[in-house]
Amino acid sequence: MPQVNPPKKIYDVCIIGSGAGGGTAAKVLTEGGLNVVMLEAGPRLNPEKDFKEHLWPYDLPHRGAGIGAVSRTELNDEFMAPNGFWEIDGEPYTNAPGSSFRWFRSRIEGGRTNHWGRIALRFGEGDFKARSRDGMGDDWPITYEELAPYYDKVESFIGVFGSKENVPNSPDGIFQPPPRPRCTETIIKKACDKLNITCIPSRLAILTQPLNGRPACHYCSQCGRGCMTASNFSSSQVMIPPAAATGRLTMIANAMAREIVVGKDGKAEAVSYIDKRSKTEQRVYAKAFVVAASACESARLLLNSRSSLFPDGLANSSGVVGRYLTDSVGSDLAGYFPQLERMPAHNHDGAGGAHMYMPWWRFGQKNDFLRGYHIEFGGGRGMPGVAGFDGVCSEHEGYGAGLKQKCRSSYGTAIGFSGRGEMIPNENSYCELDPNVVDRWGIPVLRFHWQWGENEIKMASDMQETFRSIVEEAGGTVLGHGRRHPNNGGISEGGAIIHELGTVRMGNDPKTSVLNSNCQAHDVRNLFVADAAPFVSNPDKNPTLSIMALSWRTSEYLLDQAKKGDL
Fold it and tell me: At the topology level of CATH, where does 10-45+90-108+138-153+233-328+429-452+502-567 sit?
């Protein structure tokens, strides 16, 4: 008898990436009745094994400092959520001559939602129509009103604390009660009130009340190291479990996507991926595809998916895949506050992040630069890490009782400020395939071109002036600058804020955009993108909440099209 090969399995949808966008898509699509396969480039996540938020330095060899005097704050070890990397052995990227861009990547179920600061800010009405306001960049093909219902859905499901404030272009949401401010935040709030700088409770995706079987935050303040109780948001603990509970989600871990394969009809039909464990190439087939690998990784996958139909990369007839790359404008400064030195020793517990922040308070005013920024700040006595005792010990020299006294007196006396502002896309900032370099799997890597515009440099300078005025008004003394570019007035290095986006932009014109208003490729109707790549602009708000809202909207559209048989 001749051997008969079993028919290949064809899923309804293949999702590439398990982070904010991919996890949201998995939840919506599986609960809508579709059979979904998800490819994740890293391993599965086990919170009880992988998260170490309650470990102390004395629980670890060399107190967690590593070997050869390597600081633990420079390592991806027990003091960070697992598998987040600035550099990955065997998976490089390159910078074009004269450019400097840093690319943070995550290789684990849930992606970078295991590492983010949980700052959950809605984009405002003005952010979607910024070009109409000042003539720079481009307007989005959708409005705030169209996305608002999906912000509602995301916030209601994941839990976000905050307060109703009616701040222009910083929309209120569906909030749980915010935690009370700590002493450091009270000091800064009083100074901001005197300077007429808006300072309000933060908006973080951390529970202050139980929700959907998840308990409220227990205020260990260690969100950056993971959360075994899932009281803070991560896709791995909040989005993927309900998708898996439907019985319609298949997760393939350690799967490095190499190429999306196109059929003769011009539609995507499969993903070719490398099984990292067996080092073999495999294929998975589906009727529709959702690319959610993160903005730059998604652009890389499309550029590597070349064929006779798409010689410049899949869905890239416009030539703009990889273009319009942006990151948030960042600048840092810290101050010393003598009143905190006199504070009795106390635990500085709370949510893992600032309980208060400053939204852009000069919206609609004329400034020396276009668009705006918000301010994050924090200080106090934290557990191990940069905000804790490590930073104090690195500032002082000596030994014995004198050194101990110096450390005790200065511990908890610093408050740091970080600005997060809007970058306007420019033609000199983009990513492309390096013509000569491949990774360990033989896949061409990305080469980055990067240049801040004059507008961003002016914005960073304004941040520095504002930080200084707050420190001095609060009775402090400026200590120095944090992570920043050394030559551009305090602005951060490209990529350092980890808010890169815009490489597979949406728009109404197929000649200047890759996706339509539903994040569906103009060229390939069964291909969708659901991370930060579709973003048209990079407002002064952290992008994760908007990634999830946009993914939810895209997924509902995909679900409707699938039920109609229109894919």
Answer: FAD/NAD(P)-binding domain (3.50.50)
CA–CA separation, 424 and 324 (whole Å): 9
Six token digits for residue 149: 């219902």
Angle 312-318-320 from CA coordinates, rounded to 5°: 80
For the stretch 134-175, pLDDT in tens is: 999 999 999 999 999 999 999 999 999 999 999 999 999 999
Using CA atoms, how far apart are residues 219 and 231, in angstroms rounded to an integer? 10
Q: 3-state class of 340 per DSSP?
A: helix
Task: Report how far apart, in Å, the C-alpha atoms of 500 and of each of 100, 235, 297, 497, 539 are.
Answer: 14, 19, 11, 8, 12
174: exposed, middle or buried (Cβ count in 10 Å: 0-12, 13-18, 19+): middle
Closest to 488 in 3D by CA, of 456, 450, 448: 456
Residue 408 is given by DSSP the state H
What is residue 157's three-state secondary structure?
helix
Q: Which amino acid is at 296?
A: C
* 30-70 per-position pLDDT tens digit: 999 999 999 999 999 998 888 877 777 677 676 666 555 45
Output phi, psi for 23, to 5 deg: -65, -40
Cβ burial of 243 (10 Å; 0-12, 13-18, 19+) is: buried
How far apart, in whole angstroms, are the C-alpha atoms of residue 97 and residue 93?
13
Give the separation between CA 129 and CA 86, rounded to whole angstroms.
34
Angle at which helices 144-158 and 544-564 pack, to 10 degrees? 100
Q: What residues does each domain of the chain span?
A: 10-45+90-108+138-153+233-328+429-452+502-567, 54-81+159-229+330-421+453-493
